[in-house]
Amino acid sequence: MLKWFQRVGRRGFLHMEAGFNAVFGPRLNPLYHLGALTFLFFWVVIASGIYLYIFFETSIEGAYDSVEYLTYEQWYLGGIMRSLHRYASDAMVLTMMLHLLREFTLDRYRGFRWFSWITGVPLIWLVFASGINGYWLVWDKLAQYVAVTTAEWIDWLPLFNEPMARNFLNEAAISSRFFSLLQFLHIGIPLFLLLLSWVHIKRISRPRVNPPRGLMVGTLASLVVLSLLAPAVSQGRANLDQVASVIQLDWFYLAVYPLFDIWSYGGVWILLGGITLLLALMPWLPRRHPEPVAVVDLDNCNGCGRCFADCPFGAVVMQPRTDSQPFAQEALVAADLCASCGICVGACPTASPFRRTSDLVPGVDLPQLTIREIREKTLAAAAKLSGDDRVIVYGCDFGADLGRLEERGVAVLALPCIAALPPSFLDFVITRKHVDGVFLTGCREGDCYYRLGIEWTQERIGGKRDPYLRKRVPRERIDMFWAGPDRSNQLAQKLDEFRGKLRELGPYTKPRSSHPEGDSRWNDKGVRNVTDRME
Amino acid sequence: MTYGGVYNAKWLRYIAQAALYGLFIAVLGYFSVSPAYVHLPPDQALIKLSFSHPGQPKGGCRERTDEELARLPPNMRIRVVCPRERSPVFIELEMDGRLLYRDTLIPSGLSRDGTSTVYRRFPVAAGRHHLRARLRDDVQVEGFNYVREADITLKPAQVFVVDFNAKSGGFIFK
After folding, report:
1. Closest CB to A169 among B50, B156, B158
2. Average pLDDT of A339-347?
3. Which CATH class is domain A33-281?
């Protein structure tokens, strides 16, 4: 059942993402930044909330009047701030739920990701609690409805001796002290939300908490436009002697409220509690079969820290040397954090296929696909190729089906992640003339399953990240296309174009000069020039 | 790298982006206040029955014998002793001869010595009605020891509260 939902959802997201990629490009695709957008909306809510707080009065009479003052008399700033506060809160729910749905459909919630998933579950409750609590403060008819209904709902639980809803029996029952409590909650819950958000991303290395500038500007501008076009307004002063019969609900926060009129309060508790429990248990329904984690070989580890720098999940730590080798540090893999992506192996300078003097055992390696096996498979696959357009395609387990490419007469090798391939392999297969060119593919750009694989690969080849691809490797013999799982046809087309180019280039010949030129062409690929640092 | 040749023109992409941002704020703006929800039909009013009331002690007080007192520590030697447990409160609410609510409200607390509380809401048709509330808070009493009835006229959307306070004489209709 879950798998069926995942399949359908994944297909839907892939289509939507393709559309957004066409419009925004992969760097600014909002669907690749749902978590960061949620953070952005949270900052907007906090900033606008601080401004509103300055003018807000915590009393029955004062609350509504102060909000009305902000809305009408100070519409040019206070009114916009109120609208931003409202719409950013709504947008927060929207992006948060999409983020949850997307991570689920793309199977990014089990295994090493369980911690981020499980800490996200209470965040949902806190976001809703903050928003619903905020609606009470306005003390209009919507606030009245929300206050009475929420109190009745909470009263279903055996928490209080006297029903909380008795505070809202009629106008005489409510006191201004109640607003002080509400305001305290409206500051306290978001603070707790902020703290838990930090915990939520704690296990991720280089978390993207800010969307790219272009997306940020566009999003903020659209919120301001909405605030001007449709300012948030109150729905008339609350009057507990009269029922708020017809309410303009905020469906982002209050979609569940109509259920209270259909079901019992207990039924809604069971529904929401059940959903929460299901979400909390999902990482183990079923549990992902754990892959063997990366293994450090201290005899080959010089403690350079590149694996530590590149690990997307903070699974590699550097610690003082425990053996007699003359290095200060050594790498250590935290098994419970390791995603088995192999990005650390791709970063290890000892994972070089050129090594001859010793057995090919790098400082860090994946037991399920060692560097030695990658070398052997590469050589075996390349040996079967012939002609003047011999290409080896390196892909990943989450990209396009490489089997279909193999039928087109190229060598293919699937890796856990494209960044598990050390750049020296490209040097090796091209300069040793095992192939005429190398084609790299994998997840969609901006949406690497292991977060940073594409970015690191591009930077390594572009000379921006250690280990660099050596300058002597002719860049025109390397191409890449981040196809993802659904763009096999375009991938095949790109590959054909690349092979055509290789035929025009002819066989690889070793350059006479030790400092070949021509790297400027690499810019056409969207990858930066190789820098002098590579030397 | 380009995605979809049709969007190669920069301005066309900007227009498409503006359209998607427009869609985003349209969704936000619409579902932020729409569609309106009818919580209570326009021809209805609401009766709320709610009170928190401690029932009478379940049994009578008695005097301890001298022997019983002697067995107690000096600081606990109090002659008159009363049971902690309170009577459950029995409540009935009728409108126009039709039973709206009837329940036995158990006192709170592990020793059942707290208050009996109730909070119930009844949507009813607006207009003129005859309301009768009856309550018994003592197990030693037959029938009801508090009764109030009245003809009331409810306006649409009006909240009519049936409260109870023994010190104020029993039921409060407001």
Report:
1. B50
2. 96
3. mainly alpha
